[in-house]
Design goal:
The structure is a single chain. This protein has 7 helices and 12 strands. With 247 residues, the chain is an alpha/beta fold. An 8-stranded mixed beta sheet has the order 5-4-3-2-1-10-11-12, with helices on both faces. A 4-stranded antiparallel beta sheet has the order 6-7-9-8. Strand 2, helix 2 and strand 3 form a beta-alpha-beta unit. Helix 1 packs across helix 7. The chain is globular, with a radius of gyration of 19 Å. Bound molecules: magnesium ion.
Length: 247
């Protein structure tokens, strides 16, 4: 923790990995130990670790998995019990499954992790009914819809990357101005909402991509190259500002 000046808080799939340029970013980060890393992902811990290790990404200050439902502290990745307790308090998979059993056109697919239950949907009517059923029964949760796979995932209400990051930074006593965020997808929206400076990589598919807050750069480069591009701008900024001030 000592010596950390900046934090890169990034999504993994499609942002750090999957579009080339990973090793250039890894080298850059290894040369800059003053940049601490926070990874935020929809993956489970084991899954995320495997992927990050395969590209030799540096060990993080913290890893948030299942879209922020769990937080692990580096380097040994011990679970944050306080955070997990808060999530567990209102997470009731059994109630969710019982409620959705009654929905025509909703088919249980898998318990993907402790924090994620997947349902196949016959059509959009079934999706609407399923969502209404969860609301009607007052079950605290969030649903994510994958149009292509016709799949609805149910996750804890507070499983949000932005919430997890806010908690992580406050525990580390790092100010929002020291943090740079990176993402490419819908579940990165709350990270990129304007609280932090950051980058959306070129391959990003965001519902509000045209209306990003001004502190979010839209990199013309994909994946890790886009992150590196954005990060360089961010790190140059204090110098640019100082030069402008002096001039
Ligand atoms: Mg992604």
């Amino acid at each position: 923790m000592a010596g950390i000046k900046w934090v890169l808080a990034s999504d993994i799939d499609g942002t750090l990995v999957g579009h080339g340029g990973e090793s250039a970013l890894v080298n850059f980060l290894n040369e800059r130990p003053e940049i601490g890393l926070v990874y935020l992902t929809g993956r489970t811990r084991a899954n995320a670790e495997m992927l990050l290790d395969s590209y030799q990404f540096p060990h993080p200050l913290a890893l948030a998995t299942d879209i922020g439902a769990d937080i692990f502290w580096g380097p040994s990745l011990r679970v944050d019990e306080t955070w997990a307790f808060q999530q567990r308090r209102e997470w009731s998979p059994r109630r969710i499954m019982r409620a959705l059993e009654q929905v025509d056109g909703a088919f249980f697919q898998a318990r993907c992790s402790y924090w994620r239950i997947a349902y196949g949907m016959r059509d959009l009517d079934a999706l609407a009914h399923a969502r209404a059923q969860l609301v009607r029964q007052g079950i605290p949760c969030r649903t994510l819809w994958d149009e292509e796979q016709r799949r609805m995932d149910v996750v804890p209400r507070n499983a949000l990357k932005g919430k997890a990051l806010k908690y992580i930074l406050s525990r580390l006593s790092i100010r929002p101005q020291q943090c740079f965020v990176a993402g490419d997808g819908e579940n990165d929206c709350d990270l990129l909402s304007g609280r932090y400076r950051g980058v959306v990589v070129a391959n990003g598919v965001l519902p509000f991509k045209e209306h990003l807050p001004s502190q979010i750069i839209r990199s013309p480069l994909e994946g890790a190259q886009g992150v590196l591009d954005g990060l360089r701008h961010f790190l140059d900024e204090p110098r640019v500002l100082q030069a402008e001030f002096a001039g």
